[in-house]
């Protein structure tokens, strides 16, 4: 970046100019040089959902600190390991912990691992997250397949694609109307049906956090057709799709969003983790079966 401009450039643009194709490729190559498997599926574990990574066999576990130029996880419930191995014999790479913009990272940095996955040869990204249930018919513990998102930060210069574009990652003006692959959603729903597990499907929304939402913000989202709300995932889904990978995402409803001005209830992270722990096994079962199905 030209020195003259360097103090006048948006944070995402700075990240994108520093994490060049070559630099991201160096991270991908560093990882590939250390494992025998060649994963075509990547999984991101949301808050409290990292147990899935422990199901990966013959695994190589890389603490984020070990990986050159990788950010660090700072949130409870996000261990901070990249796990590469076999999930029921299917080669996968699994993020046991993700990055959020409220940790102080630019959205471009939060989503940089999607580019690493792309350059490792990954074709499908599975995103999981914890979210507050906004749809009045949702219960705590419900699993929602994400069919679309509303992410106000991505309307602004906090969009992770802001900055010089490198066409080797993806196009300057990517479409965002079919980020969440329909076939994969149908496949996942079929698996849940066969297992008699109730599923929801809906729209996910995320703000930047770290505070949970105000009552009025939640009511506005409800009016817009949002079903569940979190602080992640939409940015990763956008970048994974921009990079040409197929995207599938699920949100676990870990708490009810509070839309009553005078309610005494409020969301808290311990409840989020507790619900995630309680539902982790069902989620793991579904995702494992799904990975097997889509690997053919
Ligand atoms: O989206 P994940 O990482 O699952 O976590 C969700 O849970 C945390 C809040 O409790 C926030 O980080 C929110 O984004
Ligand atoms: O209610 C919530 N709001 C935002 N993020 C969340 N992550 C889990 N629950 C929530």
Automatic annotation (TrEMBL):
<feature type="domain" description="Nucleoside phosphorylase">
    <location>
        <begin position="40"/>
        <end position="292"/>
    </location>
</feature>
<dbReference type="InterPro" id="IPR011268">
    <property type="entry name" value="Purine_phosphorylase"/>
</dbReference>
<keyword id="KW-0328">Glycosyltransferase</keyword>
<feature type="binding site">
    <location>
        <position position="130"/>
    </location>
    <ligand>
        <name>phosphate</name>
    </ligand>
</feature>
<dbReference type="InterPro" id="IPR000845">
    <property type="entry name" value="Nucleoside_phosphorylase_d"/>
</dbReference>
<dbReference type="GO" id="GO:0005737">
    <property type="term" value="C:cytoplasm"/>
</dbReference>
<protein>
    <recommendedName>
        <fullName>Purine nucleoside phosphorylase</fullName>
        <ecNumber>2.4.2.1</ecNumber>
    </recommendedName>
</protein>
<keyword id="KW-0808">Transferase</keyword>
<dbReference type="Pfam" id="PF01048">
    <property type="entry name" value="PNP_UDP_1"/>
</dbReference>
<comment type="function">
    <text>The purine nucleoside phosphorylases catalyze the phosphorolytic breakdown of the N-glycosidic bond in the beta-(deoxy)ribonucleoside molecules, with the formation of the corresponding free purine bases and pentose-1-phosphate.</text>
</comment>
<dbReference type="InterPro" id="IPR011270">
    <property type="entry name" value="Pur_Nuc_Pase_Ino/Guo-sp"/>
</dbReference>
<feature type="binding site">
    <location>
        <begin position="98"/>
        <end position="100"/>
    </location>
    <ligand>
        <name>phosphate</name>
    </ligand>
</feature>
<dbReference type="GO" id="GO:0004731">
    <property type="term" value="F:purine-nucleoside phosphorylase activity"/>
</dbReference>
<feature type="binding site">
    <location>
        <position position="47"/>
    </location>
    <ligand>
        <name>phosphate</name>
    </ligand>
</feature>
<feature type="binding site">
    <location>
        <position position="213"/>
    </location>
    <ligand>
        <name>a purine D-ribonucleoside</name>
    </ligand>
</feature>
<dbReference type="InterPro" id="IPR035994">
    <property type="entry name" value="Nucleoside_phosphorylase_sf"/>
</dbReference>
<comment type="pathway">
    <text>Purine metabolism; purine nucleoside salvage.</text>
</comment>
<dbReference type="GO" id="GO:0009116">
    <property type="term" value="P:nucleoside metabolic process"/>
</dbReference>
<feature type="binding site">
    <location>
        <position position="255"/>
    </location>
    <ligand>
        <name>a purine D-ribonucleoside</name>
    </ligand>
</feature>
<dbReference type="GO" id="GO:0047975">
    <property type="term" value="F:guanosine phosphorylase activity"/>
</dbReference>
<feature type="binding site">
    <location>
        <position position="232"/>
    </location>
    <ligand>
        <name>phosphate</name>
    </ligand>
</feature>
<feature type="binding site">
    <location>
        <position position="78"/>
    </location>
    <ligand>
        <name>phosphate</name>
    </ligand>
</feature>
<comment type="similarity">
    <text>Belongs to the PNP/MTAP phosphorylase family.</text>
</comment>
């Amino acid at each position: 970046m030209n020195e003259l401009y360097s103090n006048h450039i948006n944070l995402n643009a700075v990240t994108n100019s520093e994490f060049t194709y070559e630099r991201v490729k160096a991270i991908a190559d560093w990882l590939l040089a250390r494992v025998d498997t060649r994963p075509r599926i990547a999984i991101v574990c949301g808050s409290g959902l990292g147990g899935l990574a422990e199901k990966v066999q013959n695994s190589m576990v890389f603490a984020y600190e070990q990986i050159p130029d990788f950010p660090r996880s700072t949130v409870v419930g996000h261990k901070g390991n990249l796990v590469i191995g076999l999930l029921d014999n299917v080669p996968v790479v699994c993020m046991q912990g993700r990055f959020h913009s409220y940790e102080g990272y630019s959205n471009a940095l939060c989503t940089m691992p999607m580019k690493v996955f792309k350059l490792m040869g990954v074709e499908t990204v599975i995103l999981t997250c914890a979210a507050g249930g906004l749809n009045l018919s949702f219960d705590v513990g419900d699993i929602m397949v994400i069919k679309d998102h509303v992410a106000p930060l991505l309307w602004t210069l906090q969009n992770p694609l802001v900055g010089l574009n490198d066409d080797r990652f993806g196009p300057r003006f990517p479409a965002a109307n079919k980020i969440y692959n329909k076939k994969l959603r149908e496949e996942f729903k079929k698996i849940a049906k066969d297992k008699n597990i109730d599923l929801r499907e809906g729209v996910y929304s995320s703000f930047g956090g770290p505070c949970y939402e105000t009552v009025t913000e939640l009511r506005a989202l409800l009016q817009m057709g949002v079903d569940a709300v979190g602080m992640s995932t939409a940015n990763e889904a956008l970048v994974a799709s921009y990079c040409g990978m197929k995207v599938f995402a699920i949100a676990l409803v870990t708490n009810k969003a509070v839309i009553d001005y005078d309610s005494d209830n409020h969301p808290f992270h311990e409840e989020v983790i507790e619900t995630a722990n309680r539902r982790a096994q069902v989620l793991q079962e579904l995702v494992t079966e799904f990975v097997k199905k889509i690997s053919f």
